[in-house]
Design goal:
heterodimer; A: 241 residues; mainly alpha; MetI-like fold; 12 helices; B: 236 residues; 0% strand; flat
Chain lengths: 241, 236
C-alpha cells in the first residue's frame, strides 16, 4: 500500500470538494423551493395547476439526469441567437449554471412527490382541528400542516439530499472540476484506479455520513412527542407528593 | 420538418440507429439488474443468516455502494478492469493496451450498484414473510432448500415486486452513465448523432423520449406484475 500516494491523492481530490458541495447545496435549496411549488400545484385540486406539475414530475423522473444535463447544456446551446437576444446566453453558456439548473429541476421533481406524500399523510383530524380553532388556510398550513409534513418527509428527503450529492458527479462530464472530475483525470493519468476510487469514494462517504447524522439530529429535534419525558426535578416531585 | 428527417428512418435519418441503441440500453440494464439480483441476494442472505463477519461485510457493501456516486464505480471498473487486463496480457507476452468490453463493464458496475439496493428490498421482503408460513413448511417436513424454493422465494418476490420495480427504473436511468465507457446505448448514440449533425437539441430530446418510453412501459409492466402477484390475496 502506497500511503504517500494515497495521501497526496486525497488532498488533490479534496480541492474539488468545495465545488461539489456548492453544486449540491445550491441544487438542494433551489430544488426545495421548486418542489414546494410543485407539491402545492399537485395538491391544489385545480386541474390547470396539477396537470403541468404532474407532467413535469413524469418527464424529470422518467429520464436519466445525464440526459437532462446534456439537453440543457448542449441542446439549448443550439438556440444561441435566440438566447442572446433574451440576454440568457451568459447563463446557458456556463457549465456551472447549466449543471445547477439540471440538478435543481431533477431534485424538484423527486422532492415534489416526497412533499406531496408528506402533506397527504397529515391526519385529516389535525387539519379539521386547526380549522375548528379558527385558523385560516395559510395559518393552518404554516402552524399545523407544515411542521407535521416536514417531520414525515425527513427520512425520504434525506435520501434525496444524498442522491443529489452523488449526482453532482455528473457535472464532471460537462467539464466542471469537482471531485469526480479530478478523480477521472488522475485515473487516466496514473491508471491507479483502485487507490483513486478509494480516496474519492471516502470523500463522498464522509459527506453523506455527515448529512445522515445532521438529518437524524433534525428529526430528533422535530419529534419531541416521541422522546421520553424529561424527569421532573426532585424538589418538584416532593412538592407534588 | 428538418428534425423529422434527422430522426426518421430515411438515408439521412438516425431513427434505426437510435432504436438499436435503445435495445442496447435495455440489454445492459437487464444484465445489470440480473447481476444485481445475485449480489443483492447474497448480501441479503448474509445480513439475515450470516455470521458476524459476513453480516458486517454485507452491511459495508450496501452502505458503501449507496453512498458513492455510480459514475465513480463505472470509472473504477472501466479503468481498473483495463489496467488489470493489460497487466495480465503483458504477463502472457502481449504488448500494448487491452480494453475491457464496455457491455460487460457496464453490466457489472450497474449490477454492483443495484445489488446494494436490491439487498435492502429482499431483506425487507423476507422480514415481511409471515413466520407461520415457514413453521408450516417445517412442520410438513420440508428441508431448507425446498422451503426456500417453494415458500420463501415466491413470497419474497411477491412482497418485493414494488421495491424491485423502483430498482429497475433506477438501473435503467443509471445505464445512461455507461455511455462514458463508449458503449453505444441511447445517450452515446445521441451524442454521436448530435456531433455529426451539429443538431444536439433534437437528438437529446429524442433520447429523453426513448428513456421515457422504456420507463413508462416498465411502470405499466411492473403494475401488471404486482396485480398478478397479489392474485388470491384478500384486500380490504
Amino acid at each position: 500500500m502506497d500511503f504517500a500516494f494515497l495521501g497526496s491523492t486525497w488532498l488533490t481530490l479534496l480541492s474539488g470538494l468545495p465545488l461539489t458541495l456548492k453544486l449540491a447545496s445550491g441544487a438542494v435549496s433551489c430544488g426545495f423551493v421548486l418542489a414546494l411549488a410543485v407539491a402545492a400545484m399537485r395538491v391544489s385540486g385545480s386541474r390547470l395547476l396539477s396537470g403541468p406539475a404532474q407532467a413535469f414530475v413524469f418527464a424529470f423522473r422518467g429520464t436519466p439526469l445525464l440526459v437532462q444535463v446534456f439537453l440543457i447544456y448542449y441542446g439549448l446551446g443550439q438556440f444561441r441567437p435566440f438566447l442572446q437576444e433574451w440576454g440568457l446566453w451568459p447563463f446557458f453558456r456556463d457549465a456551472y449554471w447549466c449543471a445547477l439548473l439540471a440538478l435543481s429541476l431533477n431534485t424538484a421533481a423527486y422532492s415534489g412527490e416526497i412533499i406531496r406524500g408528506a402533506i397527504g399523510s397529515v391526519p385529516a383530524g389535525q387539519i379539521e382541528a386547526a380549522r375548528a380553532c379558527g385558523m385560516g388556510r395559510l395559518t393552518a398550513a404554516r402552524r399545523i400542516i407544515g411542521p407535521i409534513a416536514l417531520r414525515q418527509a425527513l427520512p425520504a428527503y434525506s435520501n434525496e439530499i444524498i442522491s443529489m450529492v452523488k449526482a453532482t458527479s455528473l457535472a464532471s462530464i460537462i467539464t466542471l472540476m469537482e471531485v469526480t472530475f479530478i478523480a477521472q483525470k488522475l485515473i487516466s493519468q496514473t491508471f491507479r484506479a483502485v487507490e483513486i476510487f478509494v480516496c474519492a469514494g471516502s470523500i463522498y462517504l464522509l459527506v453523506n455520513v455527515a448529512i445522515t447524522r445532521a438529518v437524524w439530529a433534525l428529526e430528533w429535534w422535530l419529534s419531541p412527542h416521541l422522546r421520553a419525558r424529561p424527569r421532573e426535578p426532585a424538589a418538584l416531585e416532593a412538592a407534588h407528593a | 420538418m428538418h428534425a423529422v428527417e434527422l430522426l426518421g428512418f430515411g438515408p439521412a435519418g438516425w431513427g434505426a440507429a437510435l432504436l438499436r441503441a435503445a435495445a442496447t440500453t435495455v440489454l445492459v440494464a437487464l444484465l445489470g439488474f440480473a447481476a444485481g439480483a445475485v449480489f443483492g441476494g447474497l448480501a441479503a442472505w448474509a445480513r439475515i443468516a450470516g455470521s458476524a463477519p459476513l453480516r458486517w461485510l454485507a452491511d459495508g457493501y450496501t452502505t458503501l455502494l449507496r453512498g458513492i456516486p455510480d459514475l465513480l464505480v463505472i470509472y473504477l471498473f472501466y479503468f481498473g478492469g483495463s489496467a488489470a487486463l493489460t497487466a495480465l496480457a503483458q504477463a502472457f507476452g502481449a504488448t500494448g493496451f487491452v480494453g475491457v468490453p464496455a457491455l460487460a463493464t457496464g453490466a457489472l458496475a450497474l449490477g454492483l450498484v443495484s445489488g446494494a439496493y436490491q439487498a435492502e428490498v429482499y431483506r425487507g421482503a423476507y422480514l415481511a414473510v409471515h413466520r407461520g408460513q415457514m413453521e408450516a413448511a417445517r412442520a410438513v417436513g420440508m428441508s431448507t432448500p425446498l422451503m426456500f424454493r417453494r415458500v420463501v422465494a415466491p413470497l419474497v418476490l411477491r412482497y418485493g415486486v414494488p421495491g424491485l420495480g423502483n430498482v429497475w427504473q433506477l438501473v435503467l436511468k443509471e445505464s445512461a452513465l455507461v455511455s462514458v465507457t463508449g458503449l453505444v446505448e441511447i445517450l452515446r448514440q445521441s451524442q454521436i448523432a448530435a456531433g455529426s449533425t451539429r443538431e444536439p437539441f433534437p437528438f437529446y430530446l429524442a433520447a429523453a423520449a426513448l428513456y421515457l418510453a422504456v420507463t413508462t412501459v416498465s411502470t405499466y409492466g411492473f403494475g401488471r406484475l404486482e396485480l398478478r402477484t397479489l392474485r388470491g390475496v384478500r384486500r380490504g
